[in-house]
Amino acid sequence: MKDMNNSTVKPMKELHLKHNPIYSFVRENLGILIGLLLLCVILTIFSPVFLSKNNILNVLRQVATNLYIACAMTMVIILGGIDLSVGSIIALSGVVTGGMIAFDGYSIGVAVVAGLLVGSAVGAFNGLLISKTTIPPFIVTLSTMNIARGAAYVYTGGQPIRVMSDSFNFIGAGYLGEIPMPIIYLVIIVVVSVLIMSKSRLGRHIYAVGGNPTAAKFSGIKNSRVLFFAYLFSGLMASIAGIVLASRMFSGQPTAGQGAEMDAIAAVVLGGTSMSGGVGKIGGTVIGALIIGVLSNGLNLLGINSFWQYIVKGVVILIAVYVDFLKKGNK
To answer: Any stretches that span the bilayer, and where are they (predicted)?
Structure first.
């Protein structure tokens, strides 16, 4: 009887663990979590400054703007798409917001809303074309990448727009207690993204469309609406990143956001999202972005030329995509 009770309790404990979100998160991301931990240990050995409170907050602040974009990019890539326009949206939304404050005398609130609308409009344009035509997402977003970047240069005449406003600067450079504001936004955006992907019908539809668009369509899912939302959300997140960066730099820069799409894609694929679509989690993307951020910070602390960061990110993307290829080959 005692053995029967023990044999019953054990499966119940295992079942309880499987439904524990923390246990599930660790189990799903064990490999990259170990990689992140080892990276932190190595950097701590070579640079004692790495684990200081100021440096940790600095890493999180630097990672924040990448993660705003990467959360949306996760949805886009799960759908089997890509968004190359996010870096240019960062620049465009930043200069529009800064210009409306510095040149036109609009209030901070009106200028920020305008910046968000500009980025969302580019995202909506991407979503409309991709969902209503057969033009590949790569081509659509490559085109809007150039259009948005060109618009930022035309709007500014190629010059940065200086914004001397304490209220505006607080958005990206202010603190809530000891926590930088970009980290506060990051927590909110990650929570919202996780809720969308894991707790909403929209999230289930994103996985369904990414896994098998034809089956999703026959099951009654409006594929075009799902695609439109993902690219709209991507544009919105890029515009938030653009406004935060403009605030941190005290200016709208037409050159801002160059390479931001590569950083976001690196975080997403390193976090386990399949480039073929249908598979991925926001939690993995968060760890992927942290690895990219810690690597960049570590190279700076060790005095290694920042140009090496491009090589590191390229290698990281290649390894992550190759691991995804091996996983599919074993199935």
So the answer is: 30-51, 63-96, 108-130, 137-155, 175-197, 226-246, 307-326
